[in-house]
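Predict the structure of Fe2OG dioxygenase domain-containing protein.
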Amino acid sequence: MSTQINTIPASEAVRSAEERIASYDWQEFATELSGYGCAVLPKILTPEECKEIAALYPHEEHFRSHIHMARHGFGKGEYRYFKYPLPDLIGGLRTALYPHLADVANEWNARMGIDQRYPAEHKDFLKQCHDAGQTRPTPLLLQYVPGDFNCLHQDLYGDLAFPLQIAFLLSEPGEDFTGGEFVLTEQRPRMQSRAEVVPLRQGDAVAFAVHNRPVQGTKGNYRVNLRHGVSRVRSGQRHTVGIIFHDAK
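Done. Here is the predicted structure for Fe2OG dioxygenase domain-containing protein.
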């Protein structure tokens, strides 16, 4: 089986990603994301693309590191971080999704009284990361088998952290695996934590808050703290690709 995603030039992969991303209602998406800390983009990847990306997992030449979660107390399962240059489709999605999320991120920071603002294009934000010594790519491919799970966590890799990220489900629930639901928890000040279980199908993407989001209260906006994870896989095999927009030290 080929280990390459797409034989088309990178510029065409980016253009294809931009075209499919442009078809979504981003105003509705932003409202959902701001209201709940997560929002779904349905069928952003085709089944064929999902299978092609998942098939990269055994091929070490595409990755810079291999993490076994149990060794670090992250849960049970494993993942690999892609190395630069990223596969065309993953790099294209990262580039095309960023401007829509940057608008939300800037609005959130304004509401939370955070001075940081994010540039309109991803290449400019990556330059900020690299100037700060954060040069290692963070998109990753995760693999789960029965009994595996991912503890609730936040993906913060340095002083610069983009406040939103996206995970794409590459496997079909009920066919390729059972269990393995995406879970988001929100720790609200002086209140019980709120849990959100996000139903996804193959090719769907969920965007979610990495760390904090603003919530409107009676005395203005306040910050809530979020963590995300994956519940126990009960059967089969589950693959996910995660796109984090900041690079790591």
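The longest helix spans residues 88-112.
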